[in-house]
């Protein structure tokens, strides 16, 4: 037997780890966390894209901070970009030009930073869509949904404060719109504008203040909430997609170490590499083409980044004549409604939806297995309609580009989007709900009869039938495992003595909301229905109408390959939900 003597480096590492463990107890935490099981599905990578994009933002942002001058003091540019020589501009704009053309790698880092910001917001929105449509926000994850929603709002704040820093014409026009929105607030609007800009727009203090918000306040809050978000993921365990052998009591996947540590490390470099490639090959925000901020030039094609286009679109769609005068004060509804009311309604519905759905269902159970979107028609349809409204507002924010590129009337485009903003969400809600109900009916047919094969056989009696291929136990389980959702039934308004029941009004509201959610539904197949279907199709010659050997109805929801956990799980779940 041979023994290996540890090297000096190994002994030093072991001693350091032991020293830290004895004083912090970190070894227990690391061991527990490393053994944490996480499911494996490509859609879970959307959150990782957002996280790695944020890390890329921090790395590139540190570099940019070293060269950017957050000052609105006036100077005259003298540098390699000849078109700007001698032009009066702010120190912020001049330092942006120096960073782009004189600092080695400066332009690359600027573009990496900007592309990472766009991908960060896109990943957050897509990740929230995945969470919404699969019901991952249900108990116990409602608070984590709110944390993610706040992270999205902070991402908007970080993006807006970041692309406003160069003090060019494009960002200056955006700040001017912001000033108009703030001034539209009744009574306190002008005072808030003076507070934000340090005087009349544009003032001398806004860029330094935005710089502080962008590099200190918002990133600090995002870092704290990202930590809280990940803590909740570990605390509640990760959700998983439905499938045989998966339940609310287990997690089917791989441990964090070494599987996901290796995957996450490689995935970070993949995300960073893609962003770096985009930054090196795709120009973005060329401020030298716009020039320093001047309130007089405003041209077609002046749009913010995509995640703020919905606000721009709402402002463009609102008629300019929508103003009222109350007690001598002008209330500019043409600004208040599109800039505050419409986004407020859309974002409030999005933030509170988990609590609204829980109120409608009365469901207090914990959920760790995700929904198939087709099995929640109202939720899926509502999400699609909300996305449709945002998409129309985003397109409306580019109505001038659509008009110039396709040679159309901008007035016709604006009126079209005004109509679509109300009609399209309603239509997409209806059509999506119909599609979901149709897919559920298709699932019932598949469970009861199996897949069509296109093969027709003739029995001795002269009867012709089409052969169906029965579902395997895994596919059947996927289509019957969900619990049916029905409208809530409440007690009568008055008891047997004619006394009005306390709390009836709230129960009646909940019942009406529940009917909106679940009155249109398709029940999953029950064991009794499956037994009846097999009895109906039974053939006297020992075969069923599928042309296959006749099996007992009880076996239809059980495993045929010895998967006893699947058998008991399917029968128990299907029977329990139909008691």
From TrEMBL:
Residues 16-242 form the Cytochrome b/b6 N-terminal region profile domain. GO terms for molecular function: metal ion binding; oxidoreductase activity; quinol-cytochrome-c reductase activity. Keywords: Cell membrane, Electron transport, Heme, Iron, Membrane, Metal-binding, Respiratory chain, Translocase, Transmembrane, Transmembrane helix, Transport. Signal peptide: none annotated. SUPFAM superfamilies: Transmembrane di-heme cytochromes. GO terms for cellular component: plasma membrane. Its cofactor is heme. The chain crosses the membrane at residues 45-69, 112-133, 145-165, 211-235, 267-288, 335-356, 377-395, 415-432. This is Cytochrome bc1 complex cytochrome b subunit. The lineage of its organism: Bacteria, Bacillati, Actinomycetota, Actinomycetes, Micrococcales.
């Amino acid at each position: 037997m041979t023994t290996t003597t540890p090297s000096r480096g190994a002994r030093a590492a072991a001693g350091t780890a032991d020293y830290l463990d004895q004083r912090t107890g970190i070894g227990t935490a690391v061991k527990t966390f490393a053994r944490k099981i996480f499911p494996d599905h490509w859609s879970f990578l959307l959150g990782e894209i957002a996280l790695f994009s944020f890390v890329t933002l921090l790395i590139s942002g540190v570099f940019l901070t070293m060269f950017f001058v957050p000052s609105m003091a006036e100077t005259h540019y003298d540098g390699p970009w000849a078109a700007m020589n001698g032009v009066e501009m702010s120190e912020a704009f001049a330092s942006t030009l120096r960073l782009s053309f004189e600092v080695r790698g400066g332009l690359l880092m600027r573009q990496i930073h900007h592309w990472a910001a766009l991908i960060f917001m896109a990943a957050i929105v897509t990740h929230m869509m995945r969470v919404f449509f699969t019901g991952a926000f249900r108990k116990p994850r409602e608070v984590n949904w709110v944390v993610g929603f706040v992270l999205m709002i902070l991402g908007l704040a970080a993006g807006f404060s970041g692309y406003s820093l160069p003090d060019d014409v494009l960002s200056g026009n955006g700040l001017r719109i912001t000033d108009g929105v703030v001034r539209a607030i009744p009574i306190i609007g002008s005072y808030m504008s003076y507070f934000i800009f340090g005087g009349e727009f544009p003032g001398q203090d806004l860029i330094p203040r935005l710089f502080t918000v962008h590099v200190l306040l918002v990133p600090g809050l995002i870092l704290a909430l990202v930590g809280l978000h990940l803590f909740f993921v570990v605390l509640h365990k990760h959700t998983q997609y439905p499938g045989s052998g998966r339940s609310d009591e287990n997690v089917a996947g791989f441990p964090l170490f070494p599987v996901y540590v290796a995957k996450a490390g490689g995935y970070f470099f993949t995300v960073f590499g893609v962003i770096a490639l985009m930054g090196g090959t795709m120009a973005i925000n060329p401020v030298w083409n716009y020039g320093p901020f001047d309130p007089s030039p405003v041209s077609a094609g002046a749009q913010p980044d995509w995640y703020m286009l919905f606000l721009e679109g709402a402002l463009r769609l609102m008629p300019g004549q929508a103003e009222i005068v109350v007690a001598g004060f002008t209330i500019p509804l043409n600004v208040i409604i599109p800039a505050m009311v419409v986004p407020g309604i859309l974002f409030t519905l999005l933030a509170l939806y988990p609590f609204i759905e829980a109120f409608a269902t009365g469901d207090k159970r914990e959920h760790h297995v995700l929904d198939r979107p087709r099995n929640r028609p109202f939720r899926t349809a509502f999400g699609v309609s909300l996305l449709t409204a945002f998409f129309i507002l985003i397109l409306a924010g580019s109505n001038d580009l659509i008009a110039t590129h396709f040679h159309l009337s901008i007035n016709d485009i604006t009126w079209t989007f005004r109509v679509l903003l109300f009609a399209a969400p309603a239509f997409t809600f209806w059509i999506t709900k119909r599609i979901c109900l149709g897919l559920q009916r298709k699932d019932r047919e598949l469970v009861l009869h199996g897949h069509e094969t296109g093969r027709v056989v003739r029995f001795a009696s002269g009867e012709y039938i089409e052969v169906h291929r029965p579902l395997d136990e895994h596919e059947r389980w996927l289509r019957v495992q969900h619990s049916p959702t029905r409208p809530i039934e409440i007690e009568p308004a008055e008891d047997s003595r004619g006394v009005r029941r306390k709390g009836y009004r709230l129960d009646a509201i909940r019942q009406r909301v529940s009917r909106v959610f679940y009155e249109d539904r398709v029940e999953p197949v029950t064991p009794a229905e499956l037994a009846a279907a097999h009895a109906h199709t039974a053939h006297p010659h020992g075969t069923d109408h599928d042309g296959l050997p006749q099996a007992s109805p009880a076996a239809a929801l059980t495993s045929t390959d010895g998967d006893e956990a699947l058998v008991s799980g399917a029968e128990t779940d299907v029977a329990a939900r139909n008691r």
